[in-house]
Amino acid sequence: MNRRPVRGFTLIEVMLATMLLGLLLAGTYGAIRTTVKAMQSGESAVDTINRIRVAQEFIRRQISRGMPLGFDRDDSTGVNFVFEGKRDFMRFVAPMPGYLSKGGPYVQTLELANVRGGKELLFTHAMLNGFDLRQLREEDQEPVMLVDRIRGGRFEYRGFTEEGELGDWQDDWEDPSLTPVMVRIRLQLRDDSQVVFPDMEIPLVLDVGSMRRPYTGRDGAQPPPLPGQPGQPGQQSYGVPQKFGQGQVR
User: Could you give the C-alpha distances from 126 to 56, 63, 180, in angstroms and in order?
Assistant: First the structure.
């Protein structure tokens, strides 16, 4: 009986098959790695967007509920500080959320601080009762980082002019005895954050009754009563812009 010889694979065929298998595995691994990186990048962007959204909601809530309560006093001029605003710093008084406070108003600070070669938006708070700016120490503040990976930014403020009109935006609030009408926060995040920080324009929702204060001229004289307000003895008159009626006290 004649048997047909069994033909095997040559060395070249085995090497070619091994090479093709290696190329196939390398391509599959590269595709999987690219997919994993895209997923991680997408998850990181979503996480950053969520953190920014939460931070913006918190900032908007705190600033909009600012209260005209003094947290400091200039003894030389007798001016009470109710709002301090700079290009990279602002301090005001507002209530804290119930789960973060012990009740009552808190002195709150937002600051663009230089950290590790970049900038971060930091938040600090302290109870108004017993607050002493002169004895304030950095270690007592326990700052909370709200937004990181910031390339640049600034705070801006808007108030009423002498004519009762809304003024232009300015990055230095000149009168700390008054609260602004609106606050704007503009931040530019680094490219590696992969997101954009939308500009925030926050109107202050103030209790007009509590923010009014006696108005005296430079000579100490009281102004005449407002239209519709009787000028009875002992009744207090207030300087409120006539055009807006309920607005910033001048």
Answer: 20, 15, 21
Q: List Cα–Cα distances, 123 to 16, 92, 110, 154, 177, in angstroms.
A: 64, 12, 5, 15, 22
Mean pLDDT calculated for residue range 112-139: 79
Euclidean distance between CA atoms 97 and 76, whole angstroms: 35
User: Residue 246 domain-assigned?
Assistant: no
CA 245, CA 228: separation in Å to the nearest integer?
A: 12
Q: CA 7, 13, 19: angle at the middle one, nearest 5?
A: 155
Residue 145 lies in a domain: yes
Q: pLDDT tens digit string along 127-150?
A: 888 777 665 654 456 789 999 999
First vs last Cα of the chain: how many Å apart? Answer: 119
Q: Is 107 among the domain residues?
A: yes
Judge contact between 66 and 94, C-beta under 8 A. Answer: yes
pLDDT at 35: 77
Q: What 3-state DSSP class applies to 143?
A: coil
Which residues form the domain of 121? 62-203
Number of domains making up the chain = 1
For the chain, strand residue ranges (E) read 72-74, 79-81, 83-85, 89-95, 105-115, 118-127, 144-158, 182-189, 200-203
pTM, two decimal places:
0.66
> Alpha-carbon distance 200 to 184, whole Å?
5
For residue 127, tell me if it sits in a domain: yes
Structure tokens, 148 = 């990181």
